[in-house]
Specification:
This protein is mostly helical.
């Protein structure tokens, strides 16, 4: 169990490190995502081929899988766009609004009852973002991109949850990335019309960071998470990944000294968002404990 927890938090750390890599890679956000997915597909296919896990996707699932693949690609474009048009800290703060959008989208998509407490906690994150937005107008475009990234982050796990009941996780990931790359290739020319790319072929240092991003922070992170899920619950995994924005912001402060670029209002907004995440984590833990106690009572 100890090994599983270490694997899980290593995965969370690697996820948080993607923001730092997004800053280091000088490619535009569109080309960054294109190359990340391209490299990831190659590495993931080789790993699945060696381990004998390559499977054929059923034709009836292609449209849904392709749609989620495009959603993931767009989510990444908005996330890295937020970093490039603002900075890592602002992008990750906006990313924390995922809980708010999940509380709205999940009941609509899955036809469930809306959890008003989760919605209220999500609103705390939105207020925090508004405070930052109001006092940091130079980050306007980055904040808009960050909010769009949070919306994508809320949506694709909801759709994936349905697909995972019918498709193996590794197979689903490979096909989502593959279709995502194809569809992204079709829309990038239009995207670059509005947000031009500075160049298209990675520089030598871009290649270094892209390989780390694709291999360590995408494929290896995915493997670590899957290995950890053999021992820990999905609930524990979700709680742990709430720490991702916090890890990323700490790394941004350490590597790029972003703390000196931000006004006190940023930290007020950040405080609201962290409080919302901690309260949400506590409520999830409490709900889980209550459910476990009820199940034990039924068993006796």
């Amino acid at each position: 169990m100890k090994k599983a927890f270490l694997q899980l938090h290593a995965a969370v750390f690697l996820a948080g490190f993607t923001g730092v890599l997004g800053k280091l890679i000088q490619l535009s956000e569109g080309m960054l995502v294109w190359w990340r997915i391209f490299i990831t597909i190659i590495v993931l296919f080789i790993w699945l081929r060696i381990s004998g896990q390559v499977e054929i996707l059923k034709k009836k699932e292609i449209t849904k899988v392709a749609g989620v693949g495009l959603l993931i690609a767009l989510h990444w474009i908005f996330f890295y766009g937020s970093i490039k048009y603002a900075n890592i800290s602002v992008a990750l703060v906006c990313f924390s609004a995922t809980g708010f959008f999940t509380a709205i989208f999940e009941p609509i998509v899955l036809q469930k009852k809306m959890a008003w407490i989760e919605l209220a906690l999500g609103m705390m994150s939105i207020v925090g973002i508004y405070i930052i937005f109001d006092f940091h107008p130079q980050y306007k475009l980055g904040i808009i991109f960050g909010i769009l990234a949070a919306m994508g982050s809320a949506l694709f796990p909801i759709f994936n949850k349905q697909l995972l009941t019918r498709i193996k996780a590794t197979t689903l990931t490979l096909y989502e990335f593959s279709f995502g790359l194809i569809l992204l290739s079709l829309i990038l020319p239009l995207y670059h019309h509005f947000f031009p790319a500075n160049y298209f072929w990675p520089t030598p240092m871009d290649w270094v960071w892209l390989l780390i991003l694709a291999i360590a922070c995408t494929v290896f992170m995915f493997i670590l998470q899957l290995e950890a899920l053999k021992k820990v619950s999905a609930f524990t995994s979700n709680l742990s990944f709430n720490l991702e924005p916090l890890y990323g912001i700490i790394m941004a402060f350490l590597f790029f000294n972003e703390g000196q670029l931000l006004h006190k209002e940023f930290f007020i907004g950040l405080g609201l968002i962290v409080s919302a995440v901690l309260l949400q984590t506590w409520l999830m833990w409490r709900k889980r404990s209550a459910t476990s106690a009820t199940d034990m009572g039924k068993g006796s």
